[in-house]
Structures are given as C-alpha cells and as structure tokens.
Amino acid sequence: MQSRGEKPPPPKVLARLLKTSYLFKYIAMMKCRTCPSLEFFLTALWLLFSGFQSRAQVLDYSRVVTPEGQRPASFEEYIVQLAWLNNPETQILEYRKNKEVKEVELQRSAWMDDVNFGFNVNDVSLGHIVNPSNNDLILYPLFQLSTSVSLGTFTNGKRKRQIEQEDVNIAGAEGNQHKLRIRAETLTRYRQLLLAIETLKVRVRAEEDARNVYEMANQRFKTLDIELDQMLQASASYNTAVENRLSAETDIELAKLQMEEILGVPWENVQRYQERYDK
Length: 279
Known about the structure:
The protein is mainly α.
C-alpha cells in the first residue's frame, strides 16, 4: 500500500523513468519507503518497455554482406561476399543509385533553367543618335534589360529535390534487399552441397555393406546354403545401393554447378580459400 502523502510520479516523469536508467535510481529510492506496489508496477513497466526495445533493433546491412575490401570472418561469409561482388545485379543497383544521387545534385541547380534574361535595343532611336538630324525623334530608353523567373521554381523546387532523394533511398533499399536475397540463396545452395556430400558418405557405406552381403550370399549360394530367391534379393539390394551412390555423386556435381552459377567462379578455386579458413 502507498503511504499517506506519497504521490505517484507525474506522467512526464514516469515516461522519463521508463526511457532512462533513472528508473533504477527511483526504484532504489522507493525501497527505502513503504511502497512495494509502486515498486512492482514500475519494474514491470520497465521490463515490458525494454522488451519492446530489444525487438525493435535495426538491421545493420553491412553485416549481411561483408563490404568489399574487408576480410570475411568465415568461409560462409566469404562465399556470400563473393556471390554479391560477382552478381551483375549488384553493379546494376549501384549504377542506379549513383544515377539517382546525380539527379539530386542536378535538381539543386535546376532553378537556373527557369531564369530567363532578355535584352532589347531601340534600333530607331539609336540610329537617330548615331546620325542626328533636326527632325529626328529620339525615344528612350535606348535599350531594355529584363529577367524572369518561374514561380514554380520557388514552390516546387524543394519538393522535386525531396522526390529525387526518395528515389535515392529506394535505390539504397533495393540494394539492401539484394544483399538479403544473395545471402539467403548462397547459403541455401551451400547447405545443399554439404547435404549432398554427407549423403554420399552414407550411401558409400551402405554400398559397402550391400556388397559384403551380396558376396557372402554368392558364396553361400554356391554351396547351396541359401535359395535362389535370397541370392537375387541380395543382388537387388546391392544394385540399389550402387544406384543410390551414383545418384548422390550426381547431386554433388549439380550442387557444385549451382554454387558456380551464383559465385561466378569454379568451385575448385573457392575450395582453396576454404582450406585457409579451416586452418
């Protein structure tokens, strides 16, 4: 229960407590008083607020793909970086972003295109001055200088620059989306290759076991210890194991081709770097 005369903090103060570390100081202060309910209330609110903050973290896209010129931390990060650098879409998006940046720079000086200057000369009066006579009438001014600016320059110029800047932001977001897609696709294909390699190991052992059973069955069949059906069953199991092993070898080669497609280089060249990371 709250002690008599003890008032809860105002809403502004409570918001400040939730946003900063002042909450801990406030709770520590309240422990010295008879206000356990308020202490529990503030602690629960802070835990709820901190949970929202932890879920609202912004993704650092420089960690999605290791930037060019930096050494990746692992082999997986290396192949992701390699796939991103060798992908033509990466260059296309970079060119598009650079184009939008230049459009913003051009828009900053686009107001100059709306400024017009004019210069008119009074040829008749100027001729009378050059060749004067008593009957000549000279009208002034002899020349006129004029300038004009479109009103839209002052009202729409800033908005146009903002639109161009949004295009730059969109180009940057497309580049980040491309990074996420490249990373997911590269690691997915790499996992498929690793799965194919492990599958081959299992099927090689299964083939060895099937071959041993077949050879044993063949010897026993020669001595008439087993029937023909048992011999044929062992032979069929061995043939199936051989087919499974060949299928696994094919899956590895296909997985390598998938990796080469996204990396842009032969897989054998990439494996050399894998040995460096494994050391």
